[in-house]
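Pasting as-is:
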Amino acid sequence: MWELDPDETPATDEMVQVLCEQLHNEPEAVSIGDFGAGEEFVSIGYIRADNMQWEVAGWNMSHDCWTSAAGYKVVGWRPLASPKEP
């Protein structure tokens, strides 16, 4: 189940699964997929302790990277699955 209350956030620097919504298309932004405005997608991310902002897994044409949630917003999160869960 996704945690959708914006006041309920994970501990800082805790890696979680995130549900994101694409806000608009920015060709120069770091990509996290081929999504149009209003579409939702799943990624992983965390809240940075130094600025209390979401960082989400993304990529550009040369490498994977962590990127601030610019051009999309985190609309939900949930803990990563335990390695012992089936």
